[in-house]
Every structure is written in structure tokens, then in C-alpha cells.
Amino acid sequence: MNVTKKNFDEIADEIERLLPSAEFVAIDEEMTGISLPGCEEQVADLPAARYGKMRKEGMKKIDRY
User: Measured in whole angstroms, how far is the alpha carbon of residue 29 from the centre of its chain?
Assistant: First the structure.
């Protein structure tokens, strides 16, 4: 499940409902909140691919200054 600040409100009830039956819960906050225009995240992206996309878009912003 991919939860972001954009979809948290609509998914929060489902998370709360599922928690009591979960044997294991993990929360990865490494890149939480990072989003850049023109950089579409895919659920199937591996961390290295996502980082590469974010870095590429971020460098475009830096190169302008």
C-alpha cells in the first residue's frame, strides 16, 4: 500500500481496520513528502529508480539558479 499525504485521509480508516490483524507492520519514511512536478512515482519503482527520478527532477531546479 502506497500512502502519501495526498491519499492519507482516504486510506487511514483502512489502515486502522487492518492493524489489529497484522502480524507485521513496517513504515518506510525515507522519502516521505518528496514530490516534484513532472516526476510520476510508480508503485513498482525500486528505491534506486525512484531516487534517480527525484534526483533528475531536483537537478533541473538547481541548474536554473
Answer: 8
- Of 26, 2, 23, which Cα lies nearest the Cα of 14? 2
- Which pTM was predicted? 0.42
Q: What is the pLDDT along the chain (65 residues), one digit of tens a residue?
A: 778 778 889 999 999 999 999 999 887 766 555 666 666 767 788 888 888 877 877 776 666 54
**DSSP labels for 47-58?**
HHHHHHHHHHHH
Q: 46 in the Ramachandran plot: left (φ > 0), alpha (ψ -120 to 50) or beta?
A: beta
- The domains of the chain are located at 8-63
Q: How far is CA 4 from the centre of its chain?
A: 6
